[in-house]
Amino acid sequence: MVVLGQSDGEEFGHGGFGSQGVLTDNDPIEQEKAMKFNALLTNAVIFHNALDIAEIVRQLLEEG
Prior knowledge:
With 64 residues, the protein is mostly helical. Helix content is 56%, strand content 0%. It is built from 1 helix and no strands. It has one helix at residues 28-63. The radius of gyration is 18 Å and the shape is rod-shaped.
C-alpha cells in the first residue's frame, strides 16, 4: 500500500494512513496514484457534504 509522503522521512500528508504519512515506495507512478486517490476521496467527501447541505436546506424550506 502506498501512502503520501516522501521516502526520506519528511511528512507530506496527514490522516493516519500508516507509516505516519510517509511514502513507503519512491516510485513516481505509485506516488501519482496515491495523489489521485486522495483527490478522488477528497472530492467524494465534498460532494457528500454538498448533498447533505442540500437536503437540510430542502427540509428547512418545507418547514417554512
